[in-house]
Amino acid sequence: MTRKLIAILRGLKPDEALGITEALIEAGITAIEVPLNSPQPLDSIEKMSKAFGSDALIGAGTVLSEKDVAEVAQAGGELIVSPNCDATVIAATKAAGLQSFPGVFTATECFAALTAGADGLKIFPASIMGPAGVSALKAVLPRSVPVYAVGGAGADNFSQWRAAGADGFGIGTALYAPGLTAKEVGERARKLVSAYDEVMA
Question: Which ranges form a coiled coil (predicted)?
């Protein structure tokens, strides 16, 4: 089962990248982003892609420029996630053959992202929009477009987001924070996966 869960590993260090990634995959999370404002993010992405690229979709978050996209692609990443909707970044992502998940908040941004070629939409910050806002957007968006709630979504409220029409979730501090061991991240991941399966299956 390929779950629509993206692990956001902000603050991950290269020396812990492989252990954390292995723990996530074993728990059932197979889409993983390393935000580019983490320590040496490209080193982590390269290690993760080489070791687990056939088992998981590895990439970067907080991607803000075409240069960022090129560097992530060179490191072996296949997923580009941004906090904003930038048509040039989306176009560069698709030209490089990578998957694009830009951050959006309004209907205008949603459709601009889709016009630029985005593969899916990251509602951010979802905690501010709330399920009611997601429901309103889903009413006008193409049904084929996956919409991920990011920022405020977690095991305790997956059902609310699902009822609003969210297709998936990006999970950050509820899953990983600097200082956590691979074992601790794995335990958190298993709980999230269990909650996700109960609501989304």
Answer: none
**pLDDT tens-digit profile of 121-155?**
999 999 999 999 999 999 999 999 999 999 999 99
CA distance 51 to 178: 21
Residues marked as catalytic: 33, 122
167 contacts 146 by C-beta, under 8 angstroms: yes
Phi and psi torsions of 143, nearest 5°: -65, -25
Q: β-strands 103-104, 99-101: how paired? A: unpaired
Domain 5-200: CATH superfamily is: Aldolase class I (3.20.20.70)
